[in-house]
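quick one before i forget lol
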Amino acid sequence: MELNLSRPLLFFDIESTGLNIPTDSIIELSFVKVMPGGEQRIKTWRIKPWDYEKRCQRPIDPKASEVNGVTDDMLVGCPTFYEVADEVVEWLKGCDLAGFNSAKFDLPMLAEEIERARLAGKKLDIDLHEPLMVDVQNIYHAMEPRNLKAAYRFYCGGADFDKAHTAEADTLATYEVLKGQLDKYPDVLKNDVKHLSSYVGKRYVDFAGQLISNDDSEAVINFGKHKGKTAREVYRTDRSYFAWIAGGSFALDTKAQFERLARQYAEEDRAERNRPASKDELNSLAAKFNSGKLFP
């Protein structure tokens, strides 16, 4: 079944130097943009992983090389993410997003690289929190728990796909799996990106999942000593926690979301201090004054 799209859906996959988002980097990035009507546009970048602090190429973890087949010497002449960032952002603009396990890894890693480029001086007009995100793995796990190779076998005719664990092959396979899922579960899955994006699971405020959104759309801490408390409550009672996040080893997007929330709460506090007193508050104050109990 072809996808019913009102705007482009951008499938993407990342290969990286490792799995630690704050300290690893993208080495391969592939986009498959599916347009309303079904036209496909494909773009893949090989990227030299760059350590902005040490100003040198970041080495690939040998365990990562065993999986993706990419070694350090293969990337020496490739552009850095900073150098391709403008083109990457142009591909992203105006699209919803889709991938396989991308909500937990690929999207946070892509957001981290964009934030690094911004800190290095690149002006990038994109907010990855705005698009809808369809994670095909979450739909798969909801229906038939397994991995991408097994999903491809299950939904796409029984054969394995070539060049697994290269970004472009994984991205194209993910697109085919999503179409196969729509064919297999027509009574459950709606051919609609908004519906498909609802399978993302927990509603993350930051891509790394350190903040999640509760049923009241309040940001809630999702780790550590304050797990389960709203960020608003922690801001009111332990403001140093926000400073600890800013100086800690967290993903740049996580830091940015805590900073955004701190600005929001500070603005709310200012508005509360500066608002005119209500009639009930004035009457209460007058009663205290008249009773001589204004000051305890």
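fyi The CA atoms of residues 5 and 37 lie 8 Å apart.
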